[in-house]
Amino acid sequence: MRSSRSLSLLALPVAGLLLAGCAATPAEEEAAFTLYSGRDEDLVQPLIDEFTEETGIVVDVRYGNTAELGSLLLEEGEATPADVFLSQDAGSLGALSAAGLFSTLPDDVADAVPAGFTSTDGSWVGITGRARVVVYDGEQLTEDELPDSIDDYVTEEWAGRVGVAPSNASFQSFVTALRVLEGEEAAESWLQALSDNDPQIFESNIPILTAVNDGVVETGLINHYYWFRQAAEVGAENMRAQLKFLEAGDAGSIVNVTGAGILSGSADNEDALAFIEFLLSEDGQEYFVEETFEYPLVPGIDAPEGLPSLDSLVNPELDLSDLESLAETQELLALVGLI
Which of 25, 139, 202, 213 could make an S-S bridge to 207, C-beta 3.0–4.6 Å? Predict the structure, then answer.
C-alpha cells in the first residue's frame, strides 16, 4: 500500500473531472458495468459501441485524463463505482495495482499477452503497444541530423527546439522509465537540463505534432501512433513532420502499453471481464491496428505497415511493472518546475 505522501502526490485536483469528461450511454440506468477510460473518447468509443452491439452489454463510460482518473480511483478506493479501468500507460496501472485496487485476472486473460507487455502478477493486462519517438520538422532537419539518444536533446544545441508535454501520462511514464533505467540522480539531472533548456510546453501529444507539422517547433517527444493517424488522414507525402525512432534500449524509445484491469470490488463481474476479453480478441486488436495504428500485443496479429518490429524496440532491462512509481515522477517534475 502506498504511503499517504505518495497518495497525496497522485491526488491531482479532480473536482468536476467526471462531469467534464463523462460520456454516459443513452441508457445509463441499464449499464452492466462502469468503465473509467483514460483513453480518448474519439479513439475508443466506436470500439465500445461495437462491443455493445455484439454482446448486448451496455457500458457506462466516464472519460478523463489517465493520471487524473488514476488519482480519482486512489481517492475513491473500494468505494469506487468503477468496474474497469482502461489506461493509456502502464504507470497508472502499476500504481493502482500497488495500492491493491485490482482483482486478479483469470490466467487465460493474463497470459494472452507476452511477458514484458503486461503485469507480472495478473492484476492488469496490456492491450496495445506504443513507442516513444522524436517527431521533427522534415523541412528544417534530416533524420541523420537528429541525436540517437534522449540525453542529447537537452544540450545547448537544442535549446528552445524541443516540444514536450510534462503533464501527459505518456511523458510521465517515459520519465519513470528514465528513473528506473538510469537512476534517480540521472533522471533529475536530465529533467533539470530540459527545464533549463527552454522547452516548448504542450498539454499533450497531438498539439506537439501539430506544432512540428506547422513549423512552429523543430522537434518534439510523442508516441508513434499520432503521426500515423494523421498521415492516414492527409497522406504521408503531405506530412511536414517526420518520425525518428531513437536507439533501441534508450529510455527515450521505450515501448509503453495501454492496458486494463478490473477493480477489486468487481472481481465477479462477468460483463466487465467480457469487455477485457473483447479488447484482446482478434476484432479488438485489429481495430487498434487499423484505427489507431498501435502495436497489437496478442500474438498472431500483424502490426501496422511502416513500423519497425516490436521486438527491435523492446528494452529487455525494463519491466513495465516497474513504472508504478508515478507519484515520485510527478514530484520530480514539480521539483524542476515542469509541472
Answer: 202
